[in-house]
Amino acid sequence: MASHPLPDSTSSAPSGPLLPATLAALVVAGVLLVTIVWPAEFGRDPTGVGHALGLYRPPVDAAADADAAGEAGAPSSAVLMRRQVPFRTDEMTLTLKPGEGAEIKASMGRGQRMVFSWTAIGGAGVDVDMHGEASNGDATSYWKDEWQTSGHGAFEAPFAGNHGWFWQNLNDDPVTVTVKVAGYHDRLLRP
Questions:
Q1: Cβ proximity of 133 and 86 under 8 Å
Q2: Structural domains of the chain sorted by starting position, each given as residue range(s) with its CATH number in brackets
């Protein structure tokens, strides 16, 4: 019978394929921990890979969540905007003679929001200035453009006052402008 020598108990760890495989597994586990687990579970993303992959979740602070949401238990990532004024829709139309300008505005409190859509029928378009006026008379322009036939978007009032549009008809023919708004505004008006 052939005899097999017993391994020497004083020799070091095996240096065959087991050592490189173990080291490779440790490196892969470390990379996964830092790029996947930390961003998704603990809100730590030192490499930025978790954020790029859409895995990053910021840490949850229950006290800050309660303050931000207004009530305990609601998560801070929830988008809830409670309003004192009810949701409403309004529509107003005006006709501008050649060379004439006019305004339509929404009376809004600070932080109130609305979605708007306006169209200009007739001529090649109108010049428009979307702006806001505070109760103290200060005015801010949000958007100015020339020869527009429509405008659509959403708006949040940065201050209490009247926010809306001034249209100027520079055509040789009359232009009819119709504006539609929906949201949390007090009323639509012609100043």
A1: no
A2: 18-69 (no CATH), 88-189 (2.60.120.380)
